[in-house]
Structure formats: structure tokens, C-alpha cells
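Quick question about two entries, pasted in order.
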Amino acid sequence: MPSEPDGDAIATKRALRAELRGRRRIRPQHEREAATEALTTQLIALTSTLGPRSLACYLATPDEPETRPFLAWACAQGIRVLLPVSRDDGLLDWAPYDAADERLDVIGMPVPTTELLGPIAVNDVGLILVPAAAVDRSGMRMGWGRGYFDKTLGSMDRRPPVFAIVFDGELVDELPRERHDQGVDGAVTPSGITRFTA
């Protein structure tokens, strides 16, 4: 899909985010549990195939696809895991994951309580797993509108593989896009791994 004028894309995205957020909130608990189990299997398969010694991921909020079982597995395998911590200036710091205490960052996202590393810490990972509201089949990711991950991915000189984590049904044919939007290399859903061609 060609870039829309930013005003049109912003309005379309706002409506789509509201719809997707509403769908996530009414998802029954048994569906969430089944999705978590299946998604964990897919994330383990992807990580085992790519073989990174370190990766970046995130702690899921209650409405997001759950990442904690996968993160626990990664730590048990000796993979170094970095998690994002939002800053007031719109950038992300990173903190090592230790499967222990959590707190909320400046925008209310769950984060670890370990030592904060600066924004460039992510440059050393071999895989980045990012949250998304939806992803389209060209690899365009739509986040939740704050731009943290677009800024991070857009500032990297050498990007490792980047995969968005979404529920089934959130991998769609086409999404609106703005000039600053960053694509991803693939999407991980409970039902499988989709890789996008460049």
C-alpha cells in the first residue's frame, strides 16, 4: 500500500487500533491460555532456528500475547534477554531480564527492576521481538501509536531479524503507513511463523 497522506493514515490507524484493542479485551480466558501455549511453542521454534546468543523482547501487558513463558525458557537456555524501558524523551533504555520482580515504566508498561542500560544496548542482540497491534503481509507493522519501536528500529545501523508478535487474525492483508513506520522481517502468531520477503 502506498503511503497515505499522514493525516489520513493517522485517522485510519486510530480507528483500527481502537477496534483491535477492543477485540483483545473481550478475548475469553481459555482462548488466551491456548494462545499463550501455542505462541510460546512458535517463539521457541523461531529462536532455536535463528540461534541468537542474546535477544530483545518485552513483558506483555494483560491484553497482549503473553511473552513470559517464552522469556523464562530463553533464560533457562542461557540466552541473554534485554527488555525495553520507556523514557520521557521517546527513546528506549534496555534492562536485562532475570524473571524476578517487575515494575511499571513512565508510560505504565511492565519492565524488569534490573540495571538500566542505554538505548544502544540493543545493537548487540541477534533477534528483536516487538509488540504490535497488527502486521500486514508486506511486513508493515502497526504499533500502538507512541513510536518507541519505530524510532529504535529506524536508528539501527545493523538490524538483526525483527519479528512482531501478534494474535491470529492480526496478520492482515494491508495496513495504512506513515513515513516514519518501520517494517519487520516476520510475524509470530499462535498458529505459525510468517517471514516477509524484502
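Here is the second entry:
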Amino acid sequence: MYRIALHAALAVMLTLAVGGCGSKNKEEYEKPALYWYQKMMKSAAAGNLEKADDYFTSLESEHIGSPLIPQAMIILMQAHMDNEEYLLANFYLDEYMKRYGSFKNRQFAEFIQIKAAFYGLKSPQRDQKLVSDTLKKARGYIAKYTKGEYTPMVETIEVRLEMTQYLMNESIASLYERRNKPKAAQIYRARNERSWLKKEDIVPPAKGWLGWLFD
């Protein structure tokens, strides 16, 4: 009799547990697009970007054709940029451009990519390739969108990167000279000689690269 009662109690507990899980799962799935969007917005506003990313995944998975998706991508891109998570910001931008890359949208998206890369420069001396690649993108952007809405801002970024590259070349050349390697030093001096910038026009950073780049 005791065993029957014990089995009955366990069966009831198992039923409640399964029922509870079922209710929880039902609560987390098959929601309207606006539900996921609002959850994503609330999490992003609270600074919980990991949760915001999860809610976006639910929005995208359950409502792949929702008009809220492109707007959600831009919001998450900006949120990750503000949080200095530039790789994630670029991920959302890449996806945005692949899906919604009209001419006008591409202007904005490409501008944000350049801006994200620019602000991702923590130490230009260690990120020489990123400096070079971002500078090429900035030049390409200016050539493609000559009178674009965001072109003046990209031009500012380009000038800052040109100056950064000039100072890096100068620094590397000086290092080679101190190590008695004049030929190597001349390679970097020659690069600066081809630049439209002049050494006397550039004031080296006094408070570190980041402050100098972004002020």
C-alpha cells in the first residue's frame, strides 16, 4: 500500500514538473514580433546586451519577414558600439547590408562600419593593419559617396587616420635609425614624403593615442 501511495505521489510530482516546464516553454515561444522587439529594447536599455541578442534571435527565428528586424539590427549595432563591442556591432551591420542594402541604407551602414573600426583602435601602433584597412575604406567611401550625408564625418576620420599613419611611419623610422638600420628607416620616411601632410602640421599626441584620435 505504501509503495502504491509513493508511486502515486511521484507521478503527481512528475506531472506537475512537466506541466510547469511546458508552461514555461510556452511562455517563451510563439510570441508576436512586437513582444520580442520590446523585450530586446528593454534589455538593451538596461545594458544587458547578451539578453538583447537572445531576444533578437527569437524575433528573427519566429518572424523572419518582420519589418521590425532591420530596425532591431541597427539598434543592436549601435548598442554594441556604445558598449565598445565593435566586432558584434560589425556583425549586425554586415547582416543588415546583406539583407537591406539599398543605396541609401548602404551609405549609412558603411559609414557606421568605418566609424566602428575607427573607434575600435585601442593602440594604433599595434593595430597598423586596422589603421591601413580603415583608411582605405574611408577613401573608398568618400570616392563613392562624394556628396553623401555622412561623407564629411568620414573625411574627418580619414584625416585623423592619415595623421596617425604619418606619425607611426615617423616613429618606426626613428626606431630603425636608433638601431642603425638606415635603409629600413628610409622606407618609412619615403612613405611620408609621398603624403600630402607635413610633419610640422602634426602635433604628436601628448595624452595618448585615443584622446588624440577622438578629440
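Reply: Confidence is low (pLDDT under 50) at residues 1-26. The chain has two domains: 35-100, 122-215. Hope that helps.
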